[in-house]
Amino acid sequence: MKTNQCRMCICLALIAVSAVCMSALASEAENGEWEVILCNPLMASLEMESTWAAAKAVGVNAIEIHVDSNLSCSRFYIGKETPYSFDSAENARKIKSDGEKNGVRTPVLCAPLRINPEDDVDLAWAKMLIEHAPLAGANLIYFPMGAAKKMDAEPFVQRSIPALKELIAHGKQHGVAITIENLQHYTNRPDILRPLLSTLSPDEFGLCLDPINLYWYGFPRAQVYEFVKEYAPRTKHFHAKNVNHPADQREAQREPGWKYGEHSVAVADGDLDFKKILVMLKEAGFQGYVSIEDDSLGHHPKEERVDVLKRDVQYLRSIIAELQ
């Protein structure tokens, strides 16, 4: 009898240990420690029955979702419909529920934010998004920032800081990390991005770092690497894509957007060395998601696009495996 009891205790102990280990693994995945994921807008070009199916075909376990200011997910497809939204708690929960059914998580949201030079920034929708994000399984939102009208650097920064502080405070209440992305004509500029990062606490506010966006802006490749090293300690989320410019343009100062679409290539095939970049992130203590945003898919026939993204995933995973 005692022997049977001992065996039962051992079994229960092993089950408990197993449960703890599984919980730890789930927690690690949810915290985004070097997991490769996909941006959801590019998956529409795969022309599959749903965004869920596209993610599974490529072989990732998580995606980031683009959310419009009306809280709709206008680039998340089920057939020809875009049924998902963050306009209610119920709708947010449905995203997580459907994701679980498909074996795909949605830990990151992208929500473009426009700064208005004349009026206060409308943050009501963004606050509702923050409140509903955890219900969909998301714990990080990055806000790509632009201007409703052309603005100089100083007024853009001065109008952005109060809005970001308000969103950060709301994020803390709901367990959601708030970041911005370096993007296009404003936050790619160091005279804008540096003041935003220096004014706001590193513990509360970080960056979705996209090195190719810096390259898009026209910075020479060597300077892009310098920026990556500078911004890496503030990086909470990361985008990977690439371009292949002619050799005489790689270290030149180019016009913003110069032949970007024409020269877009798969992540492994372009001018930026992502092993070099990911080493910088590791040295800075980065722990987060590496999200593929491959803008070259339009250069490939539809039937080849899944394989292009699979190669992106394999390339990044192989680098991460070496670093770990």
Describe it for me?
By secondary structure, the chain is an alpha/beta fold. It has 2 domains: 1-30; 34-323, Alpha-Beta Barrel (TIM Barrel). The protein is 44% helix and 16% strand. It contains 11 helices and 11 strands. The strands form 2 sheets. It has an 8-stranded parallel β-barrel with strand order 1-2-3-5-6-7-8-11. Strands 9-10 form a two-stranded antiparallel sheet. It is globular and about 55 Å long. It starts with a helix and ends with a helix.
Give the topology, please:
Layout (H helix, E strand, L loop, with lengths): L1 H29 L4 E5 L11 H8 L3 E5 L22 H14 L2 E6 L2 E3 L8 H9 L7 E8 L5 H22 L2 E5 L8 H10 L5 E5 L1 H7 L3 H11 L3 E6 L1 E2 L16 H4 E2 L8 H10 L5 E4 L12 H19 L1
Task: Output the number of helix runs.
Answer: 11
Mean pLDDT across residues: 90
Please report which band the strand proportion falls in: under 5%, 5-15%, 15-25%, 25-35%, 35-45% or over 45%. Answer: 15-25%
CATH H level, superfamily name of the largest domain? Divalent-metal-dependent TIM barrel enzymes
In total, the number of strands is: 11
What can be said about the biggest beta sheet?
Answer: 8 strands, parallel, barrel
Question: What level of helicity do the residues show?
Answer: 40-55%
CATH hierarchy: architecture of the largest domain: Alpha-Beta Barrel
Order of helices and strands: HEHEHEEHEHEHEHHEEHEHEH
What is the name of the CATH topology of the largest domain? TIM Barrel
- Ends distance: 47 Å
> What low-confidence regions span 5 or more consecutive residues with pLDDT below 50?
1-29
